[in-house]
Amino acid sequence: MEKKKMYGYIRVSSRDQNEARQVIALKNYGISDSDMYLDKLSGKDFDRPSYKRMLKNLRQGDVVVVKSIDRLGRNYEEIIEQWNIITREKKSDIVVMDMPLLDTRKGKDLIGTLISDIVLQLLSYVAQTERENIRQRQAEGIRAAKERGTKFGRKRIEMPPEFRCLSERWKKGEISSREAGQKLGISYQTFLRNVKNCL
After folding, report:
1. Which of 36, 167, 184, 190 has CA atoms 20 to 30 A from the CA of 131?
2. C-beta separation of 81 from 24 below 8 A
3. CB 54 within 8 A of CB 7
4. In this structure, are 127 and 192 located in the same domain?
């Protein structure tokens, strides 16, 4: 009989690049480096090549271990969908380390499955609500900062006195933007951007 395997799945966004905490937790759980799958994603791109490879390798009775429930998906619907793919289609098990109740190897009877499903739905909803609250708090913080006069984005570079003369020469075609930039000690893109701002 084929030995059942235990896989670890790690997901981090490009904003939060520190996967070390998840890696250490999975290693301590007994998962080898070769059985860990890691995806680093940007906020807009949720294509998960490592996750898809792991799903392909999953066999009946294998176990997927994640540090927390939100590693499985971005939102409530996605977490439930991936949970069902792993447990129902693949007939594999899931262990959520942060929530011992979410260990499908335990309580395989009807009551155990029911409790697991209820806890999963509740936690998925809480995870999504918390993300939405964080986004709302960030938006409110930015709005309040703007009202106080806080400027966002890159700080505008102050142009030296020679800028006006060089920009006039550039407009007349006497000098290139690169030459003007070199004389001012800035890139030609910065020179052109500031010329455009003065128009």
Report:
1. 36
2. no
3. yes
4. no
73 and 119 together in one domain: yes
Q: What is the dihedral of CA 96, 101, 105, 109, to 10 degrees?
A: -150
pTM over 0.85: no
The verdict on 110 and 172 lying in the same domain is: no
Number of domains in the chain: 2
Contacts of residues 126-129 at CB distance under 8 Å and 24 or more positions apart, as own/partner, are 127/68, 127/69, 127/70, 127/76, 127/79, 128/75, 128/76, 128/79
Pairing between β-strand 6-13 and β-strand 63-66 as defined by DSSP bridges: parallel
Cβ contact 50:38 at 8 Å: yes
Phi, psi of 119 (to 5 degrees): -65, -40
Cα 81 off chain centre by: 19
pLDDT band at 16 (very low <50, low <70, confident <90, very high): low
DSSP code, position 98: T
The answer, yes or no, to whether residue 9 has pLDDT greater than 80, is yes
SS3 2: coil
> Do 122 and 173 lie in a common domain?
no
Report the catalytic residues. Answer: 13
